[in-house]
C-alpha cells in the first residue's frame, strides 16, 4: 500500500519523541534529519522536502511547543498538519456544471489507467445518483473503445462509441452535443495517451477542449512512476490547463512520493485515487485522513465510509430482529461475510485502525482463500441445512464437503465456529446472562 515504507520510518522516528517530557532543539534537528531522509527515500522531490522541513522546523521550535507539557505530541501534530497541507489541505470535490451535462475529460499518458478509471469514476458517480455516459475517444490504441464498452457495461453505464470515424474531436463533439440530458447528465471522455508528452497529443487534446468546453479536465497519473508523475503533471498543466488529478495504482506503490509531490509541484489537487484492480476500487482523496494513516494514527472516518457503503441497511435491520429473537442462521453468517469482503482487502481495513502500522501488518497474513472456502461450504448446503445447521449429520457433511471441494474437517470446523458464535449472540441478547458475566475491568 502507498506510504508503507514512509509510514514505518516516520512512526519509528516519532516514537522517540512521543513520550519525552522535554524536547530540545537538537532533538528536533535529529528528528527532522530522519524525516528528510524518509521523504527522499519515498521519492518525494527534493524541493518539496526542503520546503516541508523548513515549515515544520520553524513551527516545532516555537515557544508554544517547547514549553508545552507534551512537546513530542505537539511536534507530531505539526508534522501531520504539514503533511495534510502538502497533499492539498481539504478534500477537493469535482465541479458540477450549472447546466447539464457536466463533462469530465480524462487525459494522461498511455498506460496510466484512463480507460479503467473512466468506468470506475462513472460507477462512483452513478452511486451518487448521476446519469453517466462514457465516451470513447482513443481511436489509436487497439481495442481501447471496446475495452471502454466492456468496463462500462460492467458498471451499468451508457457508452458512446463511433467505430466509423477516426477523428476523436468529432466523436467528443457529437457525443456531448447529442447528449439527451434526461438520460444523461454527466459525460466522461476517455482520451488517447502516448508513451511520452508530445505536441501532437497536446494539440488533439486542445481541440477537444475547445469543441466540448469540459467542466473539468482531470489528469490521470500512475502513482508508481514516482517523480515522473510530477514532470507529466507539469507538462499537461502548462499545455492544457488541468483542474485536478486522479492517481491510479496507489495500492501498488509502497513509497507514495508522487502523491506528496504532485500537489505541491502543480498546485492542482488530487481528487480521486485508485486503490485496487476491481472497478469499485476508487476513493475520494482526503489529505488529512491520509496524513493520519502515514503517522500510524489510523483512518476511522474512511473505515466508517467503507462500512456504510458495504452494509445493506435493510439486511442490517432484518439481522437485528433475528439477533433479538435468536434466529441467526448460516444465511445471515454468509451475508455478513459478503458485506465484510465488500469493504475491500482485509489488510487495508486493518491498516485504517489507529495504532496498527505497516510493520505490524507484515506479520499478519489474512487468508482470503479461507473466506472463499467458507462461502463454498455454505452455498453447497440445502436451504433447510443453512436455516437449521443442527440437522447436518455425517452423511450430509460428506455431501457438502464433496460439493464444495473441501475436507469433512473443514465442514466440522465451520459448524463449530458457527455454534460458538450462536452461543455468544444468545448471551449478548439475554440481559440476565449479561448481568451474571464477570468482566476484568
Task: Give a verbal description of the structure.
Strands 3-2-4-1-5-6-7-8 form an 8-stranded mixed sheet, sandwiched between helices. The chain folds into 3 domains: 4-86, SRP54, nucleotide-binding domain (Four Helix Bundle (Hemerythrin (Met), subunit A)); 102-295, 3-Layer(aba) Sandwich (Rossmann fold); 307-436, Orthogonal Bundle (434 Repressor (Amino-terminal Domain)), CATH 1.10.260.30. It is 56% helix and 9% strand. Strand 5 (216-222), helix 10 and strand 6 (244-248) form a beta-alpha-beta unit. Residues 433-441 have low confidence and may be disordered. Helix 8 (168-177) runs parallel beside helix 9 (199-212) and helix 10 (227-240) packs parallel to helix 11. It is α/β, with parallel strands linked by helices.
Describe how the helices and strands are arranged:
Blueprint: H1 4-18, H2 25-41, H3 46-60, H4 63-66, H5 71-86, E1 102-107, H6 114-127, E2 132-136, H7 144-154, E3 158-160, H8 168-177, E4 186-190, H9 199-212, E5 216-222, H10 227-240, E6 244-248, H11 257-266, E7 270-274, E8 282-284, H12 287-294, H13 300-310, H14 313-324, H15 330-341, H16 346-350, H17 358-362, H18 368-379, H19 383-387, H20 394-404, H21 408-428, H22 431-436
Parallel strand pairs: 1-4, 1-5, 2-3, 2-4, 5-6, 6-7
Antiparallel strand pairs: 7-8
Helix pairs in contact: 1-2, 1-5, 2-3, 3-5, 5-12, 6-7, 8-9, 10-11, 15-18, 18-20, 20-21
Amino acid at each position: 500500500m502507498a506510504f508503507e515504507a514512509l509510514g514505518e520510518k516516520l512512526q519509528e522516528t516519532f516514537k522517540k519523541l512521543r513520550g519525552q517530557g522535554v524536547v530540545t532543539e537538537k532533538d528536533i534537528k535529529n528528528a527532522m534529519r530522519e524525516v528528510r531522509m524518509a521523504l527522499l527515500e519515498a521519492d518525494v522531490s527534493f524541493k518539496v522536502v526542503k520546503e516541508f522541513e523548513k515549515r515544520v522546523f520553524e513551527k516545532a521550535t516555537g515557544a508554544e511547543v517547547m514549553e508545552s507539557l507534551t512537546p513530542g505530541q505537539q511536534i507530531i501534530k505539526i508534522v501531520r498538519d504539514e503533511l495534510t497541507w502538502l497533499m492539498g489541505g481539504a478534500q477537493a470535490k469535482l465541479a458540477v456544471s450549472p447546466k447539464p451535462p457536466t463533462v469530465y475529460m480524462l487525459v494522461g499518458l498511455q498506460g496510466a489507467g484512463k480507460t479503467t478509471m473512466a468506468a470506475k469514476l462513472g460507477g462512483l458517480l452513478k452511486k451518487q445518483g448521476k446519469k453517466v455516459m462514457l465516451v470513447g475517444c482513443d481511436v489509436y490504441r487497439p481495442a481501447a473503445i471496446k475495452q471502454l464498452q466492456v468496463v462500462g457495461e460492467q458498471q451499468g453505464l451508457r457508452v458512446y462509441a463511433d467505430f466509423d470515424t477516426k477523428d476523436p474531436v468529432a466523436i467528443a463533439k457529437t457525443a456531448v452535443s447529442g447528449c439527451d440530458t434526461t438520460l444523461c447528465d454527466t459525460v466522461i471522455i476517455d482520451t488517447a495517451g502516448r508513451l511520452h508528452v508530445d505536441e501532437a497529443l497536446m494539440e488533439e487534446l486542445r481541440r477537444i477542449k475547445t469543441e466540448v468546453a469540459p467542466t473539468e479536465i482531470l489528469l490521470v497519473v500512475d502513482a508508481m512512476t514516482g517523480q515522473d508523475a510530477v514532470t507529466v503533471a507539469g507538462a499537461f498543466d502548462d499545455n492544457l490547463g488541468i483542474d485536478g488529478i486522479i492517481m491510479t495504482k496507489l495500492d501498488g506503490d509502497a513509497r507514495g512520493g508522487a502523491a506528496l509531490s504532485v500537489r505541491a509541484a502543480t498546485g492542482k489537487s488530487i481528487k480521486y485515487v485508485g486503490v485496487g484492480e476491481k472497478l469499485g476500487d476508487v476513493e475520494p482523496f482526503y489529505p488529512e485522513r491520509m496524513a493520519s494513516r502515514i503517522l500510524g494514527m489510523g483512518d476511522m472516518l474512511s473505515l466508517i465510509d467503507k462500512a456504510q457503503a458495504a452494509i445493506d441497511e435493510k439486511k442490517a435491520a432484518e439481522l437485528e430482529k433475528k439477533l433479538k429473537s435468536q434466529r441467526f442462521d448460516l444465511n445471515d453468517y454468509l451475508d455478513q461475510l459478503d458485506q465484510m469482503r465488500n469493504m475491500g482487502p482485509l489488510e487495508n481495513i486493518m491498516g485504517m485502525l489507529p495504532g496498527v502500522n505497516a510493520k505490524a501488518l507484515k506479520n499478519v497474513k489474512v487468508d482470503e482463500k479461507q473466506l472463499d472456502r467458507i462461502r463454498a461450504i455454505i452455498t453447497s448446503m440445502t436451504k433447510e441445512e443453512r436455516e437449521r445447521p443442527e440437522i447436518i449429520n455425517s452423511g450430509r457433511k460428506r455431501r457438502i464437503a464433496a460439493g464444495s471441494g473441501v475436507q469433512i474437517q473443514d465442514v466440522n470446523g465451520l459448524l463449530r465456529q458457527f455454534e460458538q458464535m450462536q452461543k455468544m449472540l444468545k448471551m449478548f441478547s439475554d440481559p440476565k446472562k449479561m448481568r451474571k458475566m464477570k468482566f476484568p475491568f
